Inverse folding.
């Protein structure tokens, strides 16, 4: 069974979609650990409710990123795929290189438009009429790695960050489990900047 | 009747979609002139076939952009909306300012991703899984003006510039006439970077 580590910082709604897809048999994998960088967040409760091992590696308790990441690595153990699901920390190039081709993220915009931590705010400020979400492998840049899947959603004239975020999350919860299942099936071939989905 | 000037550089397939929408009664406007910057292009033939006044203002015959644009202006006459439909020249800030809120362009990507003259090539090089097209008002930047409508299309792993372009063009031919009709109905309100579509 392919072992996933899911890293979260908050509510864990993407985590929940992965848990649900596994329960429904749509995703053939097991979550070996849920790890957060903050205590008392809902992601931990969701893992607990689903009987999944969970741990908080509180960023505030570590003087440096290197020590923080060393503690994460110790907790991850022998996982096949690291899944970032609303994990609001930038990982070091050293960490990223350890998991080349085995580290995924989901970003709430159609990359390369609107990278960074405030995608919905930036989308609304720019005035685009279509936004969406992107599942990608993580490289050493910010939101710049090879793209696995994307889904588009309409942006409405009266959208707020909350209403837009809710519409995009619906798509996130569909494409993230699917992208992970493609990984599990060995169908994702990285070729430079391209991810080819094999039949 | 709202009078349109349509500026083209080549095949004129977006022009044809506008002609067809007018014939079908979906777009209540008339094209008072089709203008190209190159001789012997298909856009002129399409205009001719539809009995629309057409003229080539050959860029090569003018020493400066100012003289070229002065000749365009002379030909445009008293139009309500200038529609760029595959017009491959950058217009000067002076020209653009003359038509603030009355100058539209269509661009074959989901802006702000992939501006410039080689959108499909850049889309394929980056490896996105979703692209599309954007109708926007023209401002003094390149492909940077307030967005009126966008449509998304899937990018396939085996796409070439030709196959992707064909898929995007289908959407261009739907949204460009619709965006122009919204202008005709007085429903487009520009508010800074935003275009609000009024009921």
């Amino acid at each position: 069974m392919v072992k996933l580590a899911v890293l979260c910082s908050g509510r864990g709604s993407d985590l929940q979609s992965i848990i649900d897809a596994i329960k429904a048999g749509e995703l053939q994998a097991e979550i070996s650990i849920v790890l957060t960088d903050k205590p008392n967040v809902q992601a931990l409760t969701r893992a607990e409710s689903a009987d999944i091992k969970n741990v908080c590696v509180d960023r505030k308790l570590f003087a440096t990123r290197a020590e923080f990441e060393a503690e994460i690595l110790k907790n991850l153990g022998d996982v096949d795929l690291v899944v970032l699901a609303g994990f609001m920390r930038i990982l070091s190039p050293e960490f990223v290189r350890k998991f080349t081709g085995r580290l995924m993220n989901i970003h709430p915009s159609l990359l390369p438009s609107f990278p960074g931590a405030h995608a919905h705010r930036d989308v609304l400020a720019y005035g685009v009429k279509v936004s969406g979400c992107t599942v990608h492998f993580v490289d050493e840049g910010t939101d710049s790695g090879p793209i696995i899947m994307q889904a588009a959603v309409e942006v409405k004239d009266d959208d707020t960050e909350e209403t837009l975020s809710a519409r995009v999350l619906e798509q996130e919860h569909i494409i993230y489990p699917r992208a992970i299942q493609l990984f599990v099936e060995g169908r994702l071939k990285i070729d430079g900047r391209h991810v080819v989905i094999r039949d």
